[in-house]
Amino acid sequence: MPIPEASPIPHRTLLRDDVYRSIRDAIIRGQLAPGEQLRDQELGSWLRVSRTPVREALQRLAQAGLVVAEPGKMTRVAPENPAAIINARQVAAELHALGMKLALPHLDADDVAEMEEANARLQAALEASDSEAAIAADDDFHAVALTRSGNPLILDHLEVVTATLRRAEYLHFDSEKGSASPEQHIEILAAIRADDHDLAVTLTRENWSVLEG
Predict the structure, then answer these.
(1) pLDDT exceeds cutoff 80 at 194
(2) How many distinct structural domains can be found in the chain?
C-alpha cells in the first residue's frame, strides 16, 4: 500500500483525532486512492502510533463512508459513490443554510472582510489550478458563518458529509476549476451587506446545492 513518507503527526502526539484526521485527509486528497487496501500496521508505522487508534479511525471513516471494511478480510478506501455525493450535498446545503441563518444577526464588518479575503484567495487559487489552496480558501469563507452561528453541533454533523464532498472536489478538480463559487460568494456577501437575511440564506443553500459530484 503506497502511503506518504513523512508522518503528519509529531512523535509526541498520539491523539485519536489526529490519527483520524490524517487518514481522512490522505483519502480526501487522493493520496490513498479509491480501492486502496488499508493495513493497520502500515498506517500505524506512517503515523507512529499503535494499531488501536488506527483501527478506531478506520471505524469512524467507515461510518463516514470513506472506507469499506470487509469483516475478516480487508479494509479499502471506498470507491466514489455518486448517490452518496448527492446525499452529502443535500445535507451540507441545509446545514450551511442553517449556520448562515443563525450567524447573520452576529456578523460584523470584520467578519465580512474576512469572508472577502477568503474569497479572493479562492479566486486566485482557482486561476492557478491550486486545488489545495482553493479548497482551504472555500472552507475559510464558510467557516466564518459556521463559527458565528454559535451552534457547534452544525460543525460536528458537517464533518461526515464535507469529507465526501471535498474528496470529490480533489479527485475532479481539473474538470471543475471553472467553478462559479467565487461569484456565488460575492452574491452572498452583497446580501449580507444589504441585511437581506432570507436571500443570504437562500444563496448559501444554493452554493452548496450546485457543487459537482
Answers:
(1) yes
(2) 2
